[in-house]
Amino acid sequence: MKFEFGQFVPTVDWVQLKTMAVEVAERAYAPYSNYPVGAAALVSDGRFVVGCNVENASYGVGLCAECGLVSALYASGGGRLIAFVCVNREGTVIMPCGRCRQLLFEHGGPDLLVQTPQGVLPMSEILPQAFGPADLDRVRER
Ligand code: THU
Protein backbone atom coordinates (compact mmCIF):
# COMPACT_ATOMS: atom_id res chain seq x y z
CA MET A 1 0.00 0.00 0.00
CA LYS A 2 1.39 3.41 -0.94
CA PHE A 3 1.17 6.18 1.67
CA GLU A 4 0.92 9.82 0.69
CA PHE A 5 1.98 12.87 2.65
CA GLY A 6 -0.81 14.04 4.94
CA GLN A 7 -2.69 10.78 4.64
CA PHE A 8 -4.52 9.58 7.77
CA VAL A 9 -2.94 6.31 8.89
CA PRO A 10 -5.04 4.70 11.62
CA THR A 11 -3.42 2.89 14.51
CA VAL A 12 -5.00 -0.54 14.56
CA ASP A 13 -4.62 -3.04 17.40
CA TRP A 14 -4.77 -6.12 15.18
CA VAL A 15 -4.24 -8.47 18.13
CA GLN A 16 -7.30 -7.08 19.91
CA LEU A 17 -9.34 -7.11 16.71
CA LYS A 18 -8.49 -10.75 16.04
CA THR A 19 -9.28 -11.68 19.66
CA MET A 20 -12.74 -10.20 19.21
CA ALA A 21 -13.22 -12.18 15.99
CA VAL A 22 -12.15 -15.42 17.71
CA GLU A 23 -14.58 -14.77 20.59
CA VAL A 24 -17.57 -14.02 18.37
CA ALA A 25 -16.84 -17.12 16.22
CA GLU A 26 -17.78 -19.14 19.31
CA ARG A 27 -21.29 -17.72 19.07
CA ALA A 28 -21.76 -18.62 15.40
CA TYR A 29 -24.71 -20.78 14.33
CA ALA A 30 -23.13 -23.09 11.77
CA PRO A 31 -24.69 -26.56 12.22
CA TYR A 32 -24.69 -27.33 8.48
CA SER A 33 -21.16 -26.42 7.40
CA ASN A 34 -19.70 -26.89 10.89
CA TYR A 35 -17.47 -23.95 9.91
CA PRO A 36 -18.00 -21.12 12.41
CA VAL A 37 -16.66 -17.74 11.33
CA GLY A 38 -16.11 -14.64 13.43
CA ALA A 39 -15.52 -11.15 12.08
CA ALA A 40 -14.46 -7.94 13.80
CA ALA A 41 -13.87 -4.42 12.56
CA LEU A 42 -12.70 -1.05 13.80
CA VAL A 43 -15.10 1.79 12.94
CA SER A 44 -14.13 5.37 12.03
CA ASP A 45 -15.28 6.71 15.43
CA GLY A 46 -13.11 4.20 17.30
CA ARG A 47 -15.74 1.66 18.28
CA PHE A 48 -15.66 -2.02 17.32
CA VAL A 49 -18.30 -4.12 15.63
CA VAL A 50 -18.44 -7.90 15.34
CA GLY A 51 -20.46 -10.55 13.52
CA CYS A 52 -20.71 -14.33 13.20
CA ASN A 53 -22.17 -16.57 10.52
CA VAL A 54 -25.77 -17.69 10.96
CA GLU A 55 -26.79 -20.60 8.77
CA ASN A 56 -30.25 -21.88 7.83
CA ALA A 57 -31.95 -25.19 7.05
CA SER A 58 -32.55 -23.63 3.65
CA TYR A 59 -28.81 -23.59 2.99
CA GLY A 60 -28.70 -20.67 0.55
CA VAL A 61 -30.29 -18.37 3.10
CA GLY A 62 -27.28 -18.58 5.43
CA LEU A 63 -25.66 -15.33 6.49
CA CYS A 64 -21.91 -14.82 6.46
CA ALA A 65 -20.26 -13.29 9.52
CA GLU A 66 -19.73 -10.09 7.52
CA CYS A 67 -23.50 -9.67 7.09
CA GLY A 68 -23.94 -9.63 10.85
CA LEU A 69 -21.01 -7.26 11.22
CA VAL A 70 -22.44 -4.74 8.75
CA SER A 71 -25.83 -4.95 10.43
CA ALA A 72 -24.13 -4.32 13.80
CA LEU A 73 -22.35 -1.32 12.22
CA TYR A 74 -25.68 0.34 11.40
CA ALA A 75 -27.51 -0.89 14.50
CA SER A 76 -24.86 0.79 16.65
CA GLY A 77 -24.75 4.13 14.85
CA GLY A 78 -23.16 3.74 11.40
CA GLY A 79 -19.79 5.09 10.31
CA ARG A 80 -17.08 3.75 8.05
CA LEU A 81 -15.13 0.53 8.43
CA ILE A 82 -11.40 1.18 8.95
CA ALA A 83 -9.91 -2.24 9.66
CA PHE A 84 -11.34 -5.76 9.36
CA VAL A 85 -10.43 -9.34 10.19
CA CYS A 86 -12.29 -12.65 10.02
CA VAL A 87 -11.27 -16.03 11.42
CA ASN A 88 -12.40 -19.64 11.43
CA ARG A 89 -12.92 -21.79 14.55
CA GLU A 90 -9.18 -22.52 14.75
CA GLY A 91 -8.53 -18.80 15.02
CA THR A 92 -6.90 -18.81 11.60
CA VAL A 93 -7.32 -15.63 9.58
CA ILE A 94 -9.39 -16.33 6.47
CA MET A 95 -10.21 -14.24 3.43
CA PRO A 96 -13.70 -12.76 3.25
CA CYS A 97 -15.65 -14.49 0.46
CA GLY A 98 -16.17 -12.63 -2.79
CA ARG A 99 -19.68 -11.50 -1.95
CA CYS A 100 -18.53 -10.19 1.41
CA ARG A 101 -15.63 -8.27 -0.13
CA GLN A 102 -18.29 -6.39 -2.08
CA LEU A 103 -20.32 -5.93 1.11
CA LEU A 104 -17.30 -4.59 3.00
CA PHE A 105 -16.28 -2.33 0.09
CA GLU A 106 -19.59 -0.49 0.32
CA HIS A 107 -18.92 0.45 3.95
CA GLY A 108 -15.13 0.83 3.99
CA GLY A 109 -14.15 1.73 0.44
CA PRO A 110 -10.79 0.99 -1.21
CA ASP A 111 -8.75 2.02 1.87
CA LEU A 112 -10.36 -0.44 4.28
CA LEU A 113 -7.49 -2.43 5.80
CA VAL A 114 -8.06 -6.18 5.74
CA GLN A 115 -6.00 -8.70 7.69
CA THR A 116 -5.28 -11.58 5.29
CA PRO A 117 -3.17 -14.75 5.51
CA GLN A 118 -0.58 -12.68 3.59
CA GLY A 119 -0.66 -9.72 5.95
CA VAL A 120 -2.65 -6.50 6.05
CA LEU A 121 -3.87 -5.40 2.62
CA PRO A 122 -6.14 -2.56 1.51
CA MET A 123 -9.49 -3.52 0.03
CA SER A 124 -8.27 -2.10 -3.29
CA GLU A 125 -5.88 -5.05 -3.52
CA ILE A 126 -8.31 -7.81 -2.60
CA LEU A 127 -11.19 -6.38 -4.64
CA PRO A 128 -9.47 -4.52 -7.48
CA GLN A 129 -11.50 -2.43 -9.93
CA ALA A 130 -14.46 -2.70 -7.58
CA PHE A 131 -17.94 -1.72 -8.64
CA GLY A 132 -19.40 0.60 -6.04
CA PRO A 133 -21.65 3.56 -5.17
CA ALA A 134 -19.55 5.92 -7.35
CA ASP A 135 -20.51 3.93 -10.44
CA LEU A 136 -24.20 4.55 -9.72
CA ASP A 137 -23.56 8.25 -8.96
CA ARG A 138 -21.82 8.78 -12.32
CA VAL A 139 -24.93 7.67 -14.21
CA ARG A 140 -27.33 9.58 -11.96
CA GLU A 141 -25.44 12.84 -12.63
CA ARG A 142 -26.19 12.76 -16.37
N1 THU B 1 -18.45 -17.70 5.74
C1 THU B 1 -18.46 -16.48 6.34
O1 THU B 1 -19.17 -16.28 7.33
N2 THU B 1 -17.68 -15.49 5.82
C2 THU B 1 -16.82 -15.66 4.79
O2 THU B 1 -16.23 -14.70 4.32
C3 THU B 1 -16.59 -17.01 4.26
C4 THU B 1 -17.65 -18.01 4.57
C5 THU B 1 -19.33 -18.75 6.26
C6 THU B 1 -20.50 -19.05 5.39
C7 THU B 1 -20.86 -20.45 5.85
O3 THU B 1 -21.74 -20.34 6.97
C8 THU B 1 -19.55 -21.04 6.29
O4 THU B 1 -18.64 -19.97 6.41
C9 THU B 1 -18.99 -22.07 5.35
O5 THU B 1 -18.89 -21.54 4.06
Task: Briefly say what this structure is.
The protein has 142 residues and is an alpha+beta fold. The protein has helices at residues 14-25, 65-75, 98-108, 123-126, 133-141, and strands at 37-43, 48-52, 81-88, 113-116, 119-122.
Could you explain how this protein is built, in words?
By secondary structure, the chain is an alpha+beta fold. The protein is 33% helix and 20% strand. The protein has five helices and five strands. Strand 4 and strand 5 form a beta hairpin. The longest helix has 12 residues. It is globular, with a radius of gyration of 15 Å. The termini are far apart. The model has no long low-confidence stretch (mean pLDDT 95). The structure holds tetrahydrodeoxyuridine. Tetrahydrodeoxyuridine binds next to helix 2.
Considering the chains and any ligands shown, give keywords for the structure.
142 residues; 5 helices; alpha+beta; binds tetrahydrodeoxyuridine
Topology (elements, then pairings):
Layout: H1 14-25, E1 37-43, E2 48-52, H2 65-75, E3 81-88, H3 98-108, E4 113-116, E5 119-122, H4 123-126, H5 133-141
The chain binds tetrahydrodeoxyuridine.
Tetrahydrodeoxyuridine (THU) binds at residues 30, 33, 35, 37, 53, 55, 62, 64-66, 86, 96-97, 100.
